[in-house]
Amino acid sequence: MTAPLRRLGLLAPALAFLGVFFLLPLAWLFSLALREAEVPRALPRTLVALQGWSHGQPLPAPLFPAFAQDLVQAREAQTLADAARRLNYAVDGVRSTLMRAARSVSGAEQGTAFDAAYFEAIAPVLASPGFFAAVQQARGPVSAFYLLGALDLRLTSEGSVERSPPEQRLYLEVLQRTLGVSAAVTLACLLMGFPVAALLARSQGRVADLLMVLVMLPFWTSLIVRTAAWVVLLQREGLVNGLLLKLGIVGAPLDLIYNRTGVLIAMTHVLLPFMILPIYNVLKDIPPNYLRAAASLGAPPLTAFGRVYLPLAAPGIAAGALMVFILALGYYITPALVGGGGDQMLSYFVAKYTTETGNWGLAAALGAMLLLTTLALYAVSQRLSGARRLAVTA
Questions:
Q1: What is the reported pLDDT for 385?
Q2: Per-residue pLDDT tens for 135-157?
Q3: What angle do CA 122, 123, 126 make, to 5 degrees?
Q4: How far, in Å, CA of 39 to CA of 21, rounded?
Q5: CA quadruple 260, 269, 367, 373: dihedral sign
Q6: pTM (predicted TM-score)
Q7: Where are the domains of the chain?
Q8: How far is CA 191 from CA 32, 56, 187, 264, in A?
């Protein structure tokens, strides 16, 4: 067996595990952002009756008997609730209306005429062109409904794309907030982590070991425990405010928890080791005599640092910043525990729609948007790193 085949054989179990337990579930989740299965499964006759109809035309006469028959059978098959929930995303309040209409149709006497007047008596929306336009747009098998919603866009009854009403625009603002918080945490980690990494690189013996233990210590504690500890420390009667008051730095307790300040402090603490370690890995290989050589040639300390030390440390800084930024993009637990309502990041809404409301389509769309943002940032960083390598080589 050749060497490449042996290497492939050794990698096969890991690749199989990665494909089965990561790539396939990820692909299935993201497919939910495009799939439309609820309405076709519950209202097949209604969709057949709507073929060829467009908004602005009179509703076809066979539509309402087909709609009534679908309601009865979907209620019996227990598929109506999913379809009603999906249509409720496009037409507010229609979920309970559909369930009430299904009960009414199921209990109607034989020979009842199911026409527009019958459904209008239950709720005017069930006889409106706008409702059936939403049904038609959900005919599947795929649609961009959830992807547009994640971008604060929506389909009109005529099928065109427009911005959502101002009161419904949320996710682009949340994405901007997520990027802003991640950038602020990355900058804070860089400013605090670089001196520690430089000290680690210049230390030896027991001092270096002790510093490394202190850097690695957060990894030995659960993320929830670390975040909960900040809740205790940052509250108005906590240790931080108590120390500030005792030292006379402030005259009244500061609001450090359940706001953006608490989020930045807690996330910086959690992610700081991910900045220190890559920078330290680069700095320890920089010979100390480079700075001495620059000083012997007349360079002041700041000039030597900026023109000799910092360029050599740039790969470690880039790696640490990229790692911290990408990890911060997906943070959920820390903002949820120490942040306020206006500090929640995109991952919070992904978790909310999967565990609370069951809106898997929108959760998948938001997850895809977060993943694409991460991949775009990674591609940009790789491109910049490649350009820097070319410049150094030249």
A1: 59
A2: 999 998 999 999 999 999 998 87
A3: 105
A4: 30
A5: positive
A6: 0.86
A7: 38-143, 171-219+270-393
A8: 41, 60, 6, 14
